[in-house]
Write a structure and sequence with these properties.
Shape: globular
Helix content: under 10%
Number of strands: 35
Distance between the termini: 57 Å
Strand content: over 45%
Largest sheet: 6 strands, antiparallel
Number of helices: 0
């Protein structure tokens, strides 16, 4: 029972602070529209196969109590869920921006919460402690079902696959957790990981700070691949059917075989990459800390265009058939022509853009510093 040494204790009932307001659903229907995790799917592609208008109207602007890490939001039906660095999960009406609930913990929530059916799952990096709390919250009961105390800090995004949750700590401890709060398996890779993982139906894909690509079997955690290909990774991983895409701390962007880890091509962006890239059928889009957003041919790695934002890019692009939404730390949301990389429109903010934008029910949602959440609609609908 090796996993017991990594659990300090298990709590079945976790007490809210007095300022909390339970988030409760009357029912949960799987067929309802939802964004369930960072990148919507465990493959992390950030692609919406529709054509939209580049001109936006602000619908509402609401606030939370804390700012955000470089993460994103999730949504279900009419509700937007926002995690922040004050240790809160706040729910809003997607139509009005009215706050409908708030969960408060002592610590920081560094990554996007996830939906595992009617469970809201997230990790709190406990304040001034060397452990974190995994919370499994039942949206139908409006209360926690399980919590687990795990050693270490968790800043990497969570993966949900086949009703299991996969966690990756900053120091390379990997956990598979059931919906009942049980640890199915755990693995200590004994290396730092500051990269968002991705998963397909069989494997979990990881990139380490010392430059390795690691593939684990989702069923039992068995290591199926480990290969060193760079000096280090802090970029998240995006995957499709056969390939993985990610960038290095040296600014080199790679297309890698998921099967054997072979490098198919590489492209030098000249500056460190921490963004989780996005892709469509023909292109891969990657930004670096110099503020350059590149469109590369997925097959050959050849550059199609480069948009220079002049602002550090550490969030993922939101990709449509005709345009791309990309935030940066220059306090702008850039709306870019996908064909040629030209700037079509730009929205400026008073604070730095922190989250990757999401598209949900014909609306765009984005978070900026000081805990602001913006919702936009489109001026016109396109075919």
């Amino acid at each position: 029972m090796g996993f017991l040494k990594n659990i300090l204790f298990i709590i079945i009932a976790f007490t809210f602070l007095s300022c909390s307001k339970a988030i409760v659903f009357q029912k949960y229907e799987k067929e309802k529209d939802a964004i369930k995790m960072f990148g919507n799917y465990s493959e992390r592609n950030f692609y919406e196969k529709i054509t939209i208008d580049e001109f936006l109207n602000e619908v509402w602007n609401s606030g939370t109590h804390g700012s955000y890490s470089n993460t994103s939001f999730i949504a279900y039906d009419t509700t937007l869920f926002v995690s922040d660095l004050s240790g809160r999960i706040t729910s809003f009406s997607i139509f009005s921006g009215e706050e409908t609930g708030e969960l408060k913990y002592n610590g920081e929530i560094e990554q996007t919460a996830v939906l595992n059916n009617s469970q809201l799952v997230f990790i709190v990096n406990n304040e001034k402690e060397k452990f974190s709390t995994l919370v499994i919250y039942d949206l139908l009961k409006g209360d926690e079902t399980f919590t687990l105390i795990l050693k270490g800090k968790f800043n990497n995004e969570i993966v949900v696959k086949n009703e299991f949750v996969f966690l990756v700590s900053d120091f390379g401890k990997i956990f598979k957790i059931s919906k009942y709060g049980q640890i199915e398996w755990e693995l200590d890779l004994d290396t730092e990981i500051h990269s968002n993982p991705a998963a397909d139906d069989k494997f979990l894909y990881l990139a380490t700070l010392d430059g390795k690509i690691i593939k684990l079997n989702l069923k039992d955690g068995a290591k199926r691949l480990e290969t060193k290909i760079s000096d280090g990774f802090q970029s998240g991983i995006s995957i499709d059917d056969k390939f993985a895409y990610l960038g290095s701390i040296d600014g080199i962007f790679f297309k890698i075989s998921k099967n054997n880890g072979d490098i198919l091509w590489e492209f030098d962006t000249m500056t460190k990459i921490v963004q989780t890239p996005g892709y469509d059928e023909e292109n891969i889009f990657v930004g670096n800390l110099n503020g350059d957003l590149f469109a590369l041919d997925k097959q050959t790695g050849q550059e199609k265009w480069c948009y220079q934002s002049r602002g550090l890019i550490n969030t993922s692009p939101l990709i449509f058939e005709n345009i791309i939404f990309q935030t940066n730390l220059l306090k702008t949301l850039d709306i870019i022509d996908k064909k040629n990389g030209e700037l079509l429109n730009q929205i400026e903010y008073d604070s730095r853009c922190r989250t990757s934008p999401i598209y949900f029910r014909n609306r765009i949602f984005i978070g900026v510093d000081k805990g602001e959440v913006f919702c936009y609609s489109f001026e016109k609908k396109l075919d």
